[in-house]
Amino acid sequence: MQPGGSTADGPDAIWQPSPNFSARRDGARPDILLLHYTNMATAGAAAARLCDPAAGVSCHYLIAEDGRLWQFVDEAQRAWHAGQGCWGDAGDVNSRSIGIELANRGDHPFPEPQMRVLERLMRCIMARWQITPARVLGHSDIAPDRKDDPGPHFDWRRLALCGLAIWPEPAPAADTTDFRALAGQVGYGAEFSDADILAALRLRWRPWACGRADGLPEAEDMAILSDIAARFAVDRDRRGA
Fold it and tell me: What is the distance between the alpha carbons of residues 192 and 150, in angstroms, rounded to a whole number?
């Protein structure tokens, strides 16, 4: 898609170029779609920050609560939205991803107009770059030690039902001693603590369990890890397994 344009079934975008981008490193192509929330008062304030050279941050797209869509960086270029996050073998996630910001403070559900535009945009991006549902991630997945977006109110199951993300199926619980091994197979980085990974897992698939006092994985957490690792082991497609 040309900057600010649309495809036959994709939403129109307001082209507002940000100076905060660079070339993707080592010829990388995007194979991750990364979702964020802005945690700012308004979509307009977020757009201004994402185009401010002093801020040094950007993303490819921003969607307001009412469905307005901005594009700041061409999809072929490297936007600055993922920081030092990692997922599987992807250390420079910025070079491997397309970033979408959703206007939200993280404390309420995402409105229907915003979700409809997100779904249309995701379909186009995923088809254009052959991004699989297993490679649709939240910022909290790649940086569980410092990020919690898109947060506990984001409807991941809705995306999964549309074929735009993955969702766990019932599975026998694995032994809790397998927590780190299974987390690594799912994609969570080895440098993060058990507590950070558990928090990210629950934000994604068990938001009602966030903040449990003991911080230890439960049978449901292990069942989720076991199922996702078995069906969607990270980088499987890239290894040809």
Answer: 19
Count the Cβ atoms, other than its own, within 10 Å of residue 214. 6
Rounded to whole angstroms, the Cα distance separating 241 from 238 reads 8
Q: Which residues contact 123 (CB under 8 A, 6 or more apart)?
A: 9, 10, 164
Sequence-separated (6 or more) residues with CB below 8 Å from residue 163: 133
pTM given for the model: 0.93
Cα separations (Å) of 179 from 172, 174, 202, 220?
Answer: 14, 8, 14, 12
Q: Report pLDDT digits (tens) over 7-62.
A: 446 799 999 999 999 999 999 999 999 999 999 999 999 999 999 999 999 999 99
**31, amino acid identity:** D
Length of the chain: 241
Phi and psi torsions of 98, nearest 5°: -115, 130
CA-to-CA dists, residue 90 to 27, 49, 63, 120, 148, angstroms: 14, 26, 26, 26, 19
Task: Choose among 218, 137, 230: nearest CA to 179.
Answer: 218
Whether the ω angle into residue 150 lies within 30 degrees of 0, i.e. cis, is yes
Q: How many Å is the maximal CA-CA distance in the chain?
A: 50
